[in-house]
Amino acid sequence: MARKPDARLDPDAPRGSLGNLRWILTLLRRYPAKLAAASVSLILASAATLAIPSGFRLVIDKGFAAGSAHDIGRWFEYLLLIVLVMALASAARFYFFSILGERVVADIRVAVQRHLLRQPPAFFEENRPSEIAARMTADAAVIELIVGSTISVALRNMVTGLGGMIYLFTIAPKLTAYLLIGIPVVVLPILTMGRRLRRLSRDSQDGVASVGSMTAEILGAMRIVQAFGQEEREADRFGAQVARTLGIARKRIRMRALITAVAFFLIFGSIVAVMWQGALDVAAGRMTGGSIAAFVITGGLVAGAFGSLSESWGDLLRGAGAAGRLGELLATEPALATPASARAIPSNEGGVRIRFDHVRFRYPTRPDRLALEDFTLDVQPGETLALVGPSGAGKSTVLQLLLRFYDLESGTISLNGVPLTEAALSDLRGLMALVPQETIIFAASARDNLRYGRWDATDDEIWQAARAANAEEFLRELPQGLDTYLGENGARLSGGQRQRIAIARAMLRNAPVLLLDEATSALDSRSEHLVQQAIERLMQGRTTIVIAHRLSTVRSADRIVVMDQGRIAELGSHDALMQQGGLYARLASVQLTDSPAPDAAPAA
To answer: What is the distance, to the nearest Å, from the Cα of residue 276 to the centroid of all Cα atoms in its chain?
Structure first.
């Protein structure tokens, strides 16, 4: 099972800083056996690679010098053995680093998803889910490439380069010293251009995420796009975003190509100059032919190793940007959390008592407008309370605050005398079952969608809930029954069928508090009748708060709260409110009698 990373990024490190990769290295250390195997195979592969020039040196100086076919064959056999070790060690290095890459990316995805599930709705109002999804796919893929390939190649090149330099010193100290003098000339230009490449890599990743986000947005709204004939406009808008991203990618590729050209010219140019001097030493008899051959081959390996580091540097910068973007998600602490010493919510005979005491609230994304102001309400155990009023009056806000999706600006909300802020989130939400206006159906089987209310429910319990929710008939007609895949967001179901699944889900939860958010809106009369029957069964014996779009669904409520502009405008039973002749009466005169009222407020 994937383990959750507890490491965090350096908060002071820029998003594209290589310091962000320390987080990835921390995750790698969670798998010491695989890391050790990868490290050993990497060292063996590099050592075998560096042993090849030594083998050629022996072939030339001892095999050719002896002039015997037997001696030449013996040293070539030694050289073939080195090649075999190099091949096996390189395969093992690739295998173990690739496995580590897959494992680390799996851990990151699980950790980010688990962390996101703890975030309140306000977080997703400011961070688009489609962009987050792009981070978890594109950025995670970059990290997989970094761990599975780039780090491996970079370490191999570093070991090969440093080991090769040491071997060069043993062959020709003077020539090697010339090489070292040229290192600053090679490194400084690469580092200077690398800063520019880092910025371009970060911008490129942002552009890729925007493309992914726009793709999800357009495809998710395909019916609206086609209904309004906006296909060409959306195609042009998407093409423009792709073009912007491509433009940034071109700049990044040009910069990386320039760095590669400069690095290879400086490195191999230095090697050629040193080889020139080596050739003069051989001509003067200060070096053997085998030594200069070994020096040339090793010098080529060293030059190739350090030259490839310039390419790895660009990939590492890109990976650091990806790690920074994912790390930003993990570093965001949930705005709402369970208190350290949470109070238990006591049970209450007859149900749960809910009290709103002088509640004042405004949404974080709309700080200039009060959603609720001085809202005070006492809901008795087992009572059915209806919320009605014009659109934007604050009805849905009441339910969202009761579920503690947001914290209050002032005032308190309590369940059986315990303020929500003093109770564990799992405890207070465990007391509630929600039937939303827009039912969420997961891309899974009918069984999994139904038992989302209680995951350990048996099939018998699921069918019992489906029967009570008037959903049994259409569920039994599905091709594979409860095992039928319902499609993304229940594409294979009608609106009424989706709503009845939501009611069955709430029945399975069997919570003492029931929250109904316009559960019969946008349904045809037959579907509304079936759903309403199911709701009436569900409400029995529970404290219920129902938001009504159609006033005909709340006439039997114990009390009706009429809301307007975040305040309670009227409160009472249907008959009492009709006698008052206020806002409720005007709404009812339109919806229940179909007779026009000149000063009627808009429907809820």
So the answer is: 55
